[in-house]
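Sequence design from tokenized structure. All designs in this work follow the same two-part layout: the structure record, then the generated sequence. An example of the structure record is given first.
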């Protein structure tokens, strides 16, 4: 699509929409999950249509837990993270678009780790451990184009400790928001990251999330909708929860799912990491209305690298994880860029 046609399409869907007064936080102030020592992040973003994958690498291994609260998840190796099961550390976590097809990208991550001999030792064999979760983004463009094993491999090659690029990248490339009343009233979302440093303790907690929810995203500080289902006449937001309370007949458009990871540099065991993952879902509940629906597969992993040996209350780590996850959700929508038919926050603001 030519640039003039692109902007004409955006203008047609964004005219007259009122936005709350909110600005994207400065990137340096917001932080990034790569502020956690022992975490590398890489994206692969498909150029042919909006989709992609994001990999988190833990070259020294990391303890992990997971909590799945959406009713339509697509995951891999989550049973392994159960505290009663044998393997204690993972070498990577994959987040991907492409619905269940996107789980194929984890094979590329395994190939990369195998080449670097990173994994769980079984005798002389090294088996990489790569839990994964996917979101549904097949409604935009050619649904036959989705993340592959090669995509996962390239994401690993791109992984660094630099600040994570946000918006229409990696697993967030095809993410959308506010689909309860159909795709014509929805908006473009993306991927966001944030972190917090705890006083002078050296403890860091970070989050990364691809926001692809059926509901609206709300700024928890103001209660204002930032992105979500727009009114048909372009005059503002539908306010999905208000319509539900009024008994409005709603239509969930396809499948959705918000997927993310929280990480800390302290040492946790698998049971503690699982509790942190559970608590991190509060960050989704503070910002996404409604969340954990039958058409969302909301999944959060929690990772502990153990680079900081401070003794901690893992409940406090979980509280911080919820906080940074909420901030990462906001950054995902604030940094998204619109595509024809799917305007972003920045398009409406302009």
């Amino acid at each position: 699509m030519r640039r003039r046609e692109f902007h004409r399409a955006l203008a047609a869907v964004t005219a007259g929409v009122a936005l709350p007064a909110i600005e994207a936080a400065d990137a340096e102030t917001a932080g990034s999950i790569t502020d956690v020592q022992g975490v590398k992040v890489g994206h692969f973003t498909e150029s042919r249509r909006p989709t992609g994958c994001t990999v988190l690498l833990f070259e020294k291994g990391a303890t992990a837990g997971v909590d799945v609260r959406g009713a339509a998840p697509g995951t891999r190796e989550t049973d392994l993270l159960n505290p009663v099961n044998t393997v204690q550390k993972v070498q990577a976590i994959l987040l991907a678009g492409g619905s269940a097809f996107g789980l194929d990208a984890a094979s590329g991550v395994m190939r990369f780790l195998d080449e670097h001999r990173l994994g769980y030792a079984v005798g002389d064999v090294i088996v990489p451990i790569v839990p994964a979760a996917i979101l549904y983004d097949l409604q935009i463009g050619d649904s036959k184009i989705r993340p592959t094993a090669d995509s996962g491999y390239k994401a690993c090659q791109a992984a660094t400790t630099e600040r994570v690029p946000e918006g229409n990248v990696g697993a967030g490339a095809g993410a959308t928001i506010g689909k309860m009343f159909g795709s014509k009233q929805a908006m473009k979302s993306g991927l966001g990251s944030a972190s917090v440093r705890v006083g002078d303790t050296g403890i860091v907690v970070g989050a990364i999330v691809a926001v692809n929810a059926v509901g609206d995203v709300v700024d928890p500080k103001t209660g204002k909708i930032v992105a979500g289902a727009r009114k048909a006449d372009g005059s503002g937001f539908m306010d999905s929860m208000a319509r539900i309370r009024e008994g409005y007949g709603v239509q969930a458009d396809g499948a959705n799912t918000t997927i993310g990871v929280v990480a800390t540099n302290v040492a946790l065991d698998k049971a503690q990491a699982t509790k942190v993952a559970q608590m991190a879902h509060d960050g989704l509940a503070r910002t996404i209305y409604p969340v954990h629906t039958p058409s969302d597969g909301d999944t959060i992993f929690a990772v502990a690298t153990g680079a900081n040996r401070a003794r901690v209350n893992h409940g406090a780590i979980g509280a911080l994880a919820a906080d940074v996850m909420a901030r990462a959700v906001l950054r995902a929508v604030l940094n998204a860029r619109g595509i024809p038919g799917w305007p972003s926050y920045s398009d409406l603001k302009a």
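The mean pLDDT is 90. We note this feature because it recurs in several other targets discussed in the main text.
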